[in-house]
Design a protein that fits this description.
The complex is a heterodimer of chains A (160) and B (432). With 160 residues, chain A is an alpha/beta fold. Chain A has three helices and five strands, in the order βαβββαβα. Chain B starts with 5 loop residues before the first strand and ends with a strand. The chains are: A alpha/beta (160), B alpha+beta (432).
Chain lengths: 160, 432
């Protein structure tokens, strides 16, 4: 397996965008042994130990940054961060069993040598994280763009 | 500003996670004159939110109170209503609930030991910096944590806010193939759990004995998880419907969270309480490992809670495997309940200690009243007492940084839900 794609979220409202991307990709890549698709619960340690040792890891998650709902984000993490990733910016180091950030979790797993992969993060600014049955209008409108973006990056990695 | 005789330590923010907290400490003439663990926890609206909801929604709602110990909330609630409804619990459900519950103990304890507590004992600020020097320790912790999550998922359908439990049992019985796979994982994990216990046993822990009062549920003949009474270290046994007569919650000016006292005294709940009262019910292999390492329980010092957690992980891994040994998929994973009006009480052992529930239900099955006393609330008064006791024992004539670190370690020994903050105490010292 070369590439792991992890959708993080929950069944609640806009928080499920990561899961929905994975569901769409499953339809396209069913049976593709190069790609491992994983739906992760929002507890950011859940995916650890579940995705093997990929050469590329893509993470998709809902974002609350204050940007306009529907705003897309895409980051490539530096190959080596030497502990600086999780403590930079607004993120805190892994500190609590209740609230480990995704970046802290990635940093932790990289530090113990379990994720020697190129890592890219995809996010979609959400509007409503309450336990609602549907996506908000802004997020539903942008979801196809997010999927398209992930698909494009995935295909480029598959060609490598 | 402090003088040499007066030290005022203010920790303005302990952190988030089920509320915010802070620590205020004042020392005059080598005596602690004021010590307040201030919790800004918002009101637990879950209790009011449950009123007028149907009983069958209860387990899915209370599972959302805590992201780390949803199983405990579900089981305390389920047992309360099953007792009221006189719902018979089959041996299959009884056994599988223990496995489900052990999953929660394993994941919660593994996270606490490796991400929160271990950096204290190995001299690091956080788990990431510790992982650079001790990668295998962290790998082992994450493997155990993942195993705990898989056990929860086996019965709960998902590890966060699980939805598989119901009154009378589970909605679905796992397939034999699923259980076969998890047993392979449990077998593999036994060595991890044994090595973890040996690692914990060689840590340098304070050896003084404290005058501790502690309590946990009475689970006859077994290591305590679910029971119908509470055992207290003074020899008392309290039936669940008399909890409120002996354990009193009260408001204090410096905290929005209630403090709970047993007959007017702070008391301890959690792994050390369980192992001190019921170490004889640990799995034989755990007892042998502890004995070979020269560890004896009971030991009245809450620094030994870390060791108790490691012992409970090993016990949980071993007993979960035994409980699944002759697993057969049942066609009846639950017993259908018959609703009755009345008052219900339930208490089980969350990873952090006993979790007591009380409900009043009408004839239509609507909840009319709910009261939940979580372990962190029960431990709060004891944490304050323990900080003061430990600081006195270690000596107050230390730097503020040393006092702060010791206070943080004491707090973390309880694994409170405010524990993330305790790694990041921002210390403000004014010397007069």
């Amino acid at each position: 397996m070369n590439i792991a794609v992890v959708g993080i979220g929950s069944p609640n409202g806009d928080d499920r965008v990561g899961w929905q991307v994975i569901e769409m990709l499953r339809q396209e890549y069913i049976g593709n042994r190069q790609i491992f698709l994983h739906v992760a619960e929002r507890h950011n340690l859940e995916w650890i130990g579940q995705i093997g040792r990929p050469r590329v890891a893509l993470f998709i998650d809902a974002v609350i940054s204050g940007a306009e709902p529907g705003t897309l984000f895409h980051f490539r993490l530096p190959a080596t961060t030497s502990g600086g990733l999780a403590v930079a910016g607004p993120w805190q180091p892994a500190c609590s069993s209740h609230a480990v950030s995704l970046l802290s979790a990635i940093e932790l797993v990289r530090t113990i040598g379990e994720l020697n992969a190129e890592v890219e993060l995809f996010g979609l600014e959400i509007d409503d994280y309450r336990a609602l049955p549907d996506l908000s209008t802004a997020v539903a409108k942008q979801l196809p763009q997010l999927i398209q973006q992930v698909r494009r990056v995935l295909k480029s990695h598959l060609r490598e | 500003m402090d003088t040499k005789d007066t030290i005022s330590i203010k920790v303005p923010v302990l952190a988030r996670v089920e509320g915010e907290g802070a620590l205020d400490l004042e020392i005059r003439d080598q005596r602690i004159t004021s010590l307040h663990l201030r919790i800004f926890e918002p009101p637990r609206l879950f209790e009011a939110l449950l009123v007028q909801r149907s009983y069958h929604e209860l387990l899915d709602i209370v599972a959302r109170i805590c992201g780390i110990c949803p199983v405990a909330y579900q089981m305390s609630a389920a047992r309360a209503l099953e007792d009221l409804f006189a719902t018979p619990i089959t041996p299959w459900v009884e056994a599988m609930r223990r496995v489900y519950y052990y999953g929660e103990w394993i994941e919660s304890h593994a996270l606490h030991i490796h991400l929160l507590a271990a950096p204290d004992y190995l001299g690091f600020d956080n788990a990431i910096s510790m992982a650079e020097k001790h990668p295998e320790l962290v790998r082992r912790g994450l493997r155990l944590q993942a195993l705990g999550n898989r056990l929860i998922k086996l019965f709960g359908a998902r590890s966060v806010n699980p939805i598989g439990a119901r009154i009378g049992g589970f909605y679905r019985a796992p397939a034999v193939a699923e259980v076969r796979q998890i047993r392979l994982d449990l077998k593999t994990a036994q060595e991890d759990a044994r090595l973890l216990l040996l690692w914990a046993a060689q840590l340098e822990l304070p050896v003084y004995k404290q005058d501790l009062l502690f309590a946990c549920v009475n689970d006859p003949g077994r290591y305590p998880i679910m029971g119908n009474a509470i055992n207290v270290s003074d020899g008392s046994r309290i039936v669940l419907n008399e909890f409120a007569q002996h354990f009193r919650e009260q408001q204090v000016a410096h905290s929005t969270a209630l403090h709970c006292h047993y007959r007017g005294k702070p008391y301890l709940v959690g792994p050390l309480a369980r192992i001190n009262l019921h170490h004889e019910q640990l799995h034989d292999e755990v007892k042998r490992t502890l004995s070979a390492a020269g560890i004896q329980f009971p030991f009245p010092n809450n620094f030994y809670a870390l060791l108790a957690r490691a012992a409970e992980i090993y016990h949980a891994v071993l007993e979960a495997d035994q409980l699944l040994q002759d697993y057969q998929r049942t066609a009846s994973p639950f017993t259908q309940e018959q609703v009755r009006a009345g008052e219900a009480f339930g208490c089980t052992e969350a990873p952090r200690g006993m979790l007591w529930h009380q409900y009043k239900v009408d004839a239509a099955g609507l909840i009319q009243f709910a009261r939940i006393v979580p372990p962190t609330s029960q431990n709060q008064a004891h944490i304050e007492w323990d900080i003061a006791d430990s600081l006195h024992r270690h000596g107050l004539n230390q730097t503020n940084a040393a006092l702060k670190l010791l206070a943080e370690k004491v707090i973390r020994n309880y694994d409170p839900c405010i524990s993330c903050a305790t790694h990041f105490l921002r210390l403000k010292v004014a010397r007069r």
